[in-house]
């Protein structure tokens, strides 16, 4: 008898999603070390994601408007968030302190829409029973809705612009622009 792993995948994907969401929110708070290579890799991956969704723009004018509007909103939020990002050196390394509210707001918009789409899919297929739901396959593509596409492009535009601006500013920061970080105190012991 072979094991049926098809019932495990939704839980594995949900666990991975929770981990990624936790990591995303953790990077929205407090001092973050400058890691230019990782930032460039994220920029490249996000641009690839955006380019992979471009064919949906040719489905209708709604998708094109959603993609352009989402990208412009994301770029504006990314620029605004980068302008409010602070820089500090800590233990000889440059760190940045992201504007918490902007990053959290963009993440919550996207996560909220993603959760809504999963709940919508589950409510349509949950009452069908195991065999009928399995015969229908995986959930429908998440990008069938112009609103979902717009929010994906808000996230893509935000992080591409934000990371690019943080990298650009980190190369041009002057010593007087750095925040003072208190030196670590020794604990008597």
Question: Could you explain how this protein is built, in words?
Answer:
The protein has 189 residues and is an alpha+beta fold. It is built from six helices and four strands, in the order H-E-H-H-E-E-H-H-H-E. The chain has a four-stranded mixed beta sheet with strand order 1-3-2-4, with no helix packed on it. Strand 2 (86-90) and strand 3 (93-97) form a beta hairpin. Helix 3 (61-83) packs parallel to helix 6 (146-171).
Q: What's the rounded overall pLDDT mean?
A: 76
- Using the alpha-carbon principal axes, give the shape: globular
Rg result: 21 Å
Please give the share of residues in helix: 55-70%
Measure the end-to-end span: 61 Å
Number of strands: 4
Given helix and strand content, the structural type is alpha+beta
What amount of the residues lies in strands?
Answer: 5-15%
The major pleated sheet works out as: 4 strands, mixed
Q: Which spans of ≥5 residues are poorly predicted at pLDDT below 50?
A: 127-140
Separate helix tally: 6
- The succession of helices and strands, N to C, reads HEHHEEHHHE
Biggest sheet strand order reads 1-3-2-4
Give the gist of this structure.
The chain is of the alpha+beta class and 189 residues long. The protein contains six helices and four strands; from the N terminus they run αβααββαααβ.
